[in-house]
Design a protein that fits this description.
Blueprint (H helix, E strand, L loop, with lengths): L2 H18 L4 H37 L3 H49 L3 H5 L9 H40 L3 E5 L2 E5 L2 H21 L2 H24 L1 H7 L2 H53 L5 H18 L1 H4 L1 H30 L1 E7 L4 E9 L5 E5 L2 E3 L4 E5 L6 H9 L5 E8 L4 E4 L8 E2 H6 L9 H10 L12 E2 L1 H4 L2 H15 L3 E5 L7 H14 L4 E5 L11 E6 L6 E5 L7
Parallel strand pairs: 3-8, 5-15, 7-13, 7-14, 9-12, 12-13
Antiparallel strand pairs: 1-2, 4-5, 4-6, 4-8, 10-11, 14-15
Helix pairs in contact: 1-12, 2-3, 2-5, 2-10, 3-5, 5-10, 5-12, 6-9, 6-10, 7-9, 7-12, 9-10, 15-17, 17-18
Length: about 575
Amino acid sequence: MKPSTRRFWKDFFALLMPFWRSKEKWPAIGLLVVVVAFTLGAVFLSVQFSFWYNRFYQALQDYNQAAFWRELAIFGGLATAHVLRSVYAAYLGQWLRIRWRRWMTDHLLGEWLADRAYYRQQLTAGATDNPDQRISEDIQQFVDGTLTLSLSFLGNVVNLVSFAVILWALSAPLTIPLFGNDIVIPHFMMWAAIVYAVVGTALTHLVGRPLIGLNFQQQKREADFRFGLVRFRENTEAIALYAGEMSEKQGLLRLFGGVMVNWYQLMSRQKKLGFLTFGYGQASVVFPAILAAPQYFARTIELGGFLQVQQAFGNVQDSLSWFVSAYQSLTEWKATVDRLTGFRNSLEAAKAQARSAEIDVAAEPRGDLAIDSVQLALPDGQALVEGGGLSVRPGDRLLLTGPSGAGKSTLFRALAGIWPFGKARIRIPKDAKVLFLPQRPYLPLGTLHAAVAYPAKPEEISAEAATEALRAVDLGHLVPALEQEEYWARRLSPGEQQRLAVARAVLAKPGWLFLDEATSALDEGTEQRMFALLRDRLPGTTWLTISHDPKVAAFHDRRWRIEKEGSAPGRLVEVPAAAAA
């Protein structure tokens, strides 16, 4: 087995086995056993139908009316069993699929969200594209493809064995005269079916192999195009203000152009494969009849036997040709496995990076936050900020200033424990209740109540408390819509979103509050009111604030600054209040 093939199967089982070892395994195994039994039942019924066709057409040939009606009654029983088997096989198969998909979604979401891997993943080289598609579409396609293909393969193996026995028994030997001698090939039709299937399989793999890579690229480019549309939808106001419609159209059409280019290559390859598979399928309709015709015209078999031989040959050939008929599905399934594997590998790389990071943020039984040393860098390794020997005492209100791009927000990320690049030794109070307010607040989908309560659950914050907090930040006009579900990130202006974030802080009452340009979208008067509100409502809270507004300094009693000269890394130092701006 090639190393690439071994690696693929190793990756596949790494995706497959966790579910079948989980707490869900026994109900899932029970469902799988029933579904497999129904799959084998399909083969059993197919064999019974084969013998039924023999008896039925023999009754017609013999003009045996009693046998004709008896066989119709038997057909009714077989048909009823076939309908029940088909319906319940589909129903229970769907039940198993959704249980498997639910578990995989929960598991992969947990892996993605754990230790903030979703954030670090985007910082690593070769970051995975479109993680949303991996979790939504690729899991569904993996589950559906794995079950469909495995059950189909199992059914075809059992079908092959069952009908090979029938074909072996019915197939007469073929005598070929050669140079005065007779060469006898026993059970000729069985060997003919094998040769026919092997040739078709080899040709199909030769023609269709490029489809694996093309399907992988098609999924990626479709996801890129969809992401471009989502990004456009989420930034409609900014695009409208810029009058950037033509630029956006060109960008979206460029993404769709990638879809089209790959689609044309898929079309061309599928056309070639289609000529082969459809031609192969059509030839298989008459091929067994041609082979069985000499026996029939020699009167060694009758009409019923002729039809049964033809049907048995068709079943054996179809089972042996499973690879041919399933090739397109196999290429799509392999592309899905590769995409999910790439996503898992990217998560592992992000976690490994976090484990190997030299930024040590440790919670200790202490009251202050201490930066013993810090040397932060950009993802490409370029030094950004350095400093150390600084601390923040409980109740301090610290203002951090510095030139744009000096690394102020990156320092906050390091304090939050999510920045992996560089070296640092940071000590934070154990069990401290911390809240970060970024410049652009995140508003989850759902009700306004949920948006105000975030990151707490809405049921943890009473409607009365949420209402009071909204009124306190001058958003009282939104109170009637508190339980209304809307896309609040689109409905609210940037200033309203920042005031809503201040309301969150009022409700959360954190011990440590980090504000990263959290009021930059507000006018001067509103900004002053928001800081006064935080001062009055959170008297014991420690602040660490990033701001370029010198008027904000009045609400702070300590100052840090990142001083930067030329291309050298910025230096984090404490400065007197008058020099902070």
